[in-house]
């Protein structure tokens, strides 16, 4: 019946802790509105601001979306393209890949992907093709969170078995360390944290919304968190709150660690971190008494010593026995494997003809510049031109006529502008898939609500077509979505398969809060928490975590933080006009005393500058960061931006101590009035 209202329940697959339930409103078979599902436990009828706009804006706007495959016609990087048919586009890509594989070996074909969509098939199935091809990977997590994974791997044997957020009902204290739920997990901020009965402690240099509402906000200088953790442990010991029984039964190496605590009094901690000693002691008492939850943010490990920081903060749960009991535990991410998802089934690494080769995102630019090993670059679920470090050099390297680049995306991104072939991907509203929240222990359906816009195709279909054009025969490469979804749902214990999951929307996989590591057994070599890690020592790290801090920036320089913005999802939605309006001009915030010292006033245009690049930004002044810290936010779109650059033009791509991962929150800059900077040599002129 025309005009009849129907509702499709689906799930947001963005890289976000929340995994919101969505209600897609249709009239007469046409989508009219995308809303939060009122019956969903997380979204409760409201999407976050950015998705509420984008899902009713650019995501459904045929004028904004890529609707046909494109072939480059102008010089590389200029952004001139001509529409072509799918067969021609797939044919061009397959021919080029075959030629490179024959001449240089398939390892010369690199692909990079990340979490543009976190739905399981669109995020995982393309790997079957890339594995079969034998392509090299740009190591995905090196752009985001690998240091934390490596550090927790040494210590706990796993970084993807976190607390069950439902444990909050039994927690006397929730410690959020280096995460900004107000931006990056807006529903956890608005509902989960607010409804939790325990006291909230936030450790963050930025007094963000969650920090401002906490019972205690510790505001360390960036990169000093290991010293803060040691000072808290010192205070915990002084208060008699060490759980020596837990340490004896479930850890190794406390004996080597404990003497390091001796000098680390709260006053020592204050001198290194800037956090008042009394607050360190108060937070230590609260956390130590427990039961306490510890949320380890991803921002925390994006520091030069991020791995050591994670190992140091990771000492708190075992030292206080805050693990394995109700209301206690720590969380980095909750992985899908824990819920029954078999990653090897999804990605089929057994299809690889040769051992896997990979490269850190931090080495991408140098390797491209060297011009030998990377002949083709396939980019899917990622926008490297906006979100990767060494932006100017990256763009230049991507403009090489010798490099064959494919961008698969919903939009013509800055990466797409540098491609030879652009392939239009379908949005999450346009195909069935599944979403596994990395916070809650739930599984959700992504249900098709509309036909793909134009000729867009889901990632998986694009890679099936590529497999066929390459002449690959393995049945894994052609397995239909419906069969995969059914198998995945059943492997998580959803006996009715995908249909049952789609009917429910989201399923809690366990009826009650799941205690974390309740049996006290850890997947480390010793089966215990390895405070002293022989594996870490073998890899060249200290045997136990150290109370180390980064040196303060040299005089006149600021530590630049560029964490998640409330109005963007990484670089996504950078092309939505309403979001652009909300976001205003690219800005940087300084402490009032720093602004005064520099003679700068709020609203002025300032220039941020270092060896890597230079960028104009609008200055805001507020006491939300310590002195010496400048706060911006990550990854706007570049095209249309002033100076044709974003904050990543200032990021030298320094690696973390562990995992060769991004140390983006360790960037240092000078801040100058606009006129003064114009007289000085720019980074590009200096190169
Ligand atoms: N300065 C600074 N830079 C940072 C960070 C920071 O903190 N500061 N954070 C880093 C982090 S943590 C990350 S994860 C990266 C992420 O950075 P980006 O790669 O910018 O991540 P997203 O915007 O999530 O997604 C990338 C693209 O995936 C596309 N996409 C969405 N769904 C699909 C789909 O179904 N198929 C295909 N083919 N494409 C799809 C989107 O349109 C988008 O263009 O940025 C990093 N960059
Ligand atoms: N709205 C929105 N939501 C997002 C994203 C987005 O871009 N926008 N991105 C998504 C992605 S890909 C990711 S990885 C997550 C990341 O989400 P989070 O885990 O919240 O990580 P960030 O936003 O990078 O940084 C979080 C906090 O770390 C703090 N921080 C930086 N350096 C230090 C330090 O040395 N010590 C301490 N204690 N804190 C520090 C920053 O000030 C910031 O407030 O968010 C996801 N959700
Ligand atoms: S991005 Fe996060 S908060 Fe926004 S709708 Fe998606 S899951 Fe919810
Ligand atoms: Mo990320």
What does this entry look like structurally?
- The protein is built from 28 helices and 27 strands.
- The protein is an alpha/beta fold and 687 residues long.
- A hairpin with a 2-residue loop joins strand 2 and strand 3 (30-36).
- Helix 9 packs parallel to helix 14 and helix 12 packs across helix 13.
- One ligand MGD binds at residues 15-16, 144-145, 177-180, 183-184, 203-206, 208, 220, 222-223, 225, 297-300, 302-303, 561, 563-566, 568-570, 634, 665.
How much of the sequence lies in strands comes to 15-25%
Chemical compounds bound to the protein: ligand MGD, iron/sulfur cluster, molybdenum atom
| Number of structural domains | 3
Overall CATH class of the largest domain: Alpha Beta
Structural class: alpha/beta
Described by strand count, sense and barrel closure, the largest sheet is: 8 strands, mixed
User: Roughly how much helix do the residues carry, as a percent range?
Assistant: 25-40%
Overall mean pLDDT:
96
User: Outline, from the CA principal axes?
Assistant: globular
Low-confidence stretches: 679-687
CATH architecture of the largest domain: 3-Layer(aba) Sandwich
How would you write the strand order of the largest sheet? Answer: 5-4-17-16-15-6-7-14
Question: Tally of extended strands?
Answer: 27
**How large is the radius of gyration?**
25 Å
CATH names the topology of the largest domain as Rossmann fold
């Amino acid at each position: 019946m025309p005009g009849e209202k129907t509702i499709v329940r689906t799930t947001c697959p963005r890289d976000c802790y929340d995994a919101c339930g969505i209600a897609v409103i249709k009239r007469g078979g046409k989508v009219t509105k995308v809303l939060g599902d009122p019956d969903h436990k997380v979204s409760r009828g409201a999407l976050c601001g950015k998705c509420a706009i984008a899902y009713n804006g650019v995501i459904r706007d045929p004028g904004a979306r890529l609707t046909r495959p494109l072939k480059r016609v102008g010089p590389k990087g200029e952004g001139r393209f001509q529409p072509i048919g799918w067969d021609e586009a797939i044919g061009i890509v397959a021919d080029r890949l075959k030629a490179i594989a024959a001449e240089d070996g398939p390892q010369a074909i690199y692909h990079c992907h990340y979490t543009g969509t976190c739905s399981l098939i669109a995020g995982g199935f393309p790997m079957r093709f890339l594995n079969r091809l034998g392509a090299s990977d740009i190591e995905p997590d090196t752009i985001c969170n690998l240091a934390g994974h490596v550090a927790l791997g040494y210590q706990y044997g796993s970084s993807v078995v976190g607390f069950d957020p439902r444990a909050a009902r039994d927690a006397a204290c929730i410690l959020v360390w280096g995460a900004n739920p107000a931006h990056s997990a807006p529903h956890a901020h608005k509902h989960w944290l607010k409804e939790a009965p325990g006291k909230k402690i936030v450790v963050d240099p930025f007094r963000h919304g969650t920090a401002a509402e906490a019972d205690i906000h510790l505001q360390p200088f960036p990169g000093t968190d290991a010293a803060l953790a040691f000072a808290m442990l010192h205070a915990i010991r002084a208060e008699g709150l060490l759980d020596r029984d837990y340490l004896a039964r479930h850890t190794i190496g406390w004996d080597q660690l404990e003497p390091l605590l001796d000098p680390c009094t709260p006053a020592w901690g204050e001198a290194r971190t800037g956090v008042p000693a009394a607050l360190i002691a108060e937070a230590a008492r609260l956390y130590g008494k427990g039961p306490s939850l510890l949320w380890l943010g991803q921002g925390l490990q994006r520091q030069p010593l991020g791995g050591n920081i994670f190992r140091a903060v990771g000492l708190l749960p075992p030292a206080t026995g805050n693990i394995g009991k109700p209301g206690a535990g720590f969380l980095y991410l909750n992985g899908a494997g824990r819920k029954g998802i078999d990653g090897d089934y999804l990605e089929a690494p057994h299809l690889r003809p040769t051992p896997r080769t990979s490269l850190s995102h931090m080495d991408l630019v140098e390797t491209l510049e060297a011009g030998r090993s990377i002949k083709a670059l396939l980019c899917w679920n990622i926008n490297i031109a906006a979100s990767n470090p060494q932006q100017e050099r990256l763009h230049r390297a991507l403009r090489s006529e010798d490099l064959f680049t494919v961008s698969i995306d919903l939009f013509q991104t800055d990466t797409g502008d540098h491609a030879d072939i652009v392939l239009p991907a379908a949005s999450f509203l346009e195909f069935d898939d599944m979403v596994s929240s990395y916070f809650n222990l739930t599984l959700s359906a992504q249900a098709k609500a509309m036909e793909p816009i134009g000729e867009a195709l889901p990632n998986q279909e694009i890679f099936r077509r590529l497999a066929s054009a390459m002449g690959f025969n393995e049945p894994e490469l052609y397995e239909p979505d419906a069969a995969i979804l059914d198998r995945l749902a059943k492997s998580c214990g959803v006996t009715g398969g995908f249909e049952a999951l789609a009917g429910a929307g989201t399923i809690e996989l366990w009826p009650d809060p799941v205690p974390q590591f309740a049996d006290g057994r850890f997947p480390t070599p010793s089966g215990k928490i390895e405070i002293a890690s022989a594996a870490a020592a073998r890899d060249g790290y200290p045997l136990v975590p150290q109370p180390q801090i980064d040196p303060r920036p040299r005089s006149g320089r600021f530590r630049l933080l560029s964490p998640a913005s409330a109005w963007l999802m990484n670089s996504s939605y950078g092309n939505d006009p309403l979001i652009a309006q909300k976001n205003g001009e690219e800005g940087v915030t300084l402490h009032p005393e720093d602004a005064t010292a520099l003679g700068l006033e709020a609203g002025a245009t300032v220039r941020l500058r270092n060896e890597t690049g230079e960028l104009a930004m609008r200055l805001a002044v507020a006491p939300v960061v310590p002195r010496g810290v400048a706060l911006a936010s990550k990854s706007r779109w570049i095209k249309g931006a002033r100076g044709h650059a974003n904050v990543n033009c200032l990021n030298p791509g320094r690696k973390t101590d562990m995992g060769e991962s991004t140390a983006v929150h360790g960037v240092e800059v000078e801040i100058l009035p606009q006129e003064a900077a114009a007289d000085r040599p720019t980074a590009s002129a200096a190169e």
